[in-house]
Specification:
globular; mainly beta; two-stranded antiparallel sheet
């Protein structure tokens, strides 16, 4: 798995300006918002927003409004400390991997109705990095092989997409983390 240091640096710098929620109560049991901003990819090291197609699938390289999201930490998820585990929400729907049990990559993401408000399914569980990975966002991976799964990219970090511009997610090839940024380039 290869993660780009350019994307990490860009996400880290830009994520500092992302809106952060106030410190959560230690007894929080439901998912709560930590950060808001635009879901971003980093072709050639430049932060660009992703959009949705008419099926609510995440696409790159098509016109439309950049996807505004909230990262919500979910304290009931096992291992929710550093980095945070939670879900990504936009307009009341959750960013969900469509094919989380697939034996092969790529995976694809779309917005669908959220599941549990305390323990999202593996398809709706995302990881928000802290420390050296601050601002970097990854899909937490399938239940049988959890990890840090970003979007698939070419050598210059340009996202790989289908003919219909649906973003490919996975790390069999080179991959780069997503970011949640308050503004895009």
């Amino acid at each position: 798995m290869k993660f780009s240091t350019t994307a990490f640096a860009a996400a880290s710098l830009l994520a500092l300006s992302a809106t952060a929620a106030t410190a959560p109560e230690a007894r929080a049991t439901t998912c709560y918002t930590l950060h808001t901003g635009y879901l971003a990819v980093f072709p050639k090291g430049i932060a660009k927003g992703v959009t949705l197609n008419s099926q609510n699938e995440v696409v790159f390289g098509k016109s439309g409004n950049s996807l505004k999201v909230e990262f919500q930490a979910c304290p009931k998820l096992p291992g929710n400390s550093d980095p945070y585990l939670g879900r990504i929400v936009s307009n009341g729907k959750c960013l969900t991997i469509e094919n989380p049990t697939s034996a092969t990559e790529p995976y694809y993401a779309k917005l669908v109705k959220c599941g549990s408000n305390t323990r999202p399914s593996a398809a709706q569980t995302w990881r928000y990095g802290t420390g050296d990975y601050s601002g970097n966002v990854f899909w937490a991976g399938p239940t049988k092989a959890p990890g840090n799964i970003g979007y698939m990219s070419a050598d210059d970090e340009t996202p790989l997409v289908t003919a219909a511009k649906v973003l490919k997610i996975g790390c069999d090839h080179q991959c780069v983390s997503f970011g949640i940024l308050s503004k895009l380039n």
